[in-house]
């Protein structure tokens, strides 16, 4: 794992916020609490957790045009923010949350590989802080968060299994994967693909073992940041 840093309370107005740094990938995560839910679950008594994701124009080595200037989100952005939302909901008891919505905004300040994984890991911390405020106010009876959720990338680079790929490793990896797990070690989602070379079941198991190790370190960092 690259060096992990999670600083909480970095914005004044959000119900929960953190700046997560995984190596040279830095993501600002904020949680916004609203006493409403999307129309498709209105009246069900269930809560909702969703996410939005974006990269600042100079998060990478060349300037990217803001998607707002283009008038629409790119396919990569839509895919990643849906992934973040799905991942975080896996650790939420939506009945206990009640009919309210928490939106997690993940803004990449600096990118060096693994931005979606850092967004999920930091997004959970922001979510935890927002839920803590709900519980302190007595707005929920029991803790809606059932477990930690964190994510890490793994791949086959130069013929070797590698944990927590940075951008140079990610861009040249023969096999690339993103692994989302709970604190208890249960799988939430796995995204794996061959990038020019196929992989074996044994190699997949090796990467999963690495991911479990990495997520364990990320969960420890989450616990340290929110205790």
Estimated share of beta-strand residues? 25-35%
Query: Percentage of helical residues?
Result: 25-40%
What's the main sheet like? 5 strands, mixed
What integer value in Å does the Rg equal?
A: 17 Å
Uncertain stretches of 5 or more adjacent residues: none
Number of helices: 6
Structural class of the helices, strands and pairings?
alpha+beta
Let me know the average pLDDT.
Answer: 96
Question: How far apart lie the N and C ends?
Answer: 22 Å
The gross shape turns out to be globular
The tally of strands reads 9
Biggest sheet: strand arrangement:
1-2-3-5-4
N-to-C SSE string, H for helix and E for strand: EEEEHHHEHEEHEEH
Describe this structure in words.
With 227 residues, this protein is of the alpha+beta class. 34% of the residues lie in helices and 30% in strands. The strands form 2 sheets. The chain has a 5-stranded mixed β-sheet. Strands 7-6-8-9 form a 4-stranded antiparallel β-sheet, sandwiched between helices. A hairpin with a 2-residue loop joins β6 and β7 (160-163). The protein is globular and about 55 Å long. The relative contact order is 0.18. The mean pLDDT is 96. Belongs to the RNase PH family.
List the helices and strands and how they pair.
Blueprint: E1 4-8, E2 16-22, E3 25-34, E4 48-55, H1 67-70, H2 75-89, H3 94-97, E5 101-110, H4 115-136, E6 149-157, E7 160-163, H5 167-172, E8 175-182, E9 187-194, H6 201-226
Parallel strand pairs: 4-5
Antiparallel strand pairs: 1-2, 2-3, 3-5, 6-7, 6-8, 8-9
Identify the notable features of this structure and list them briefly.
alpha+beta; 6 helices
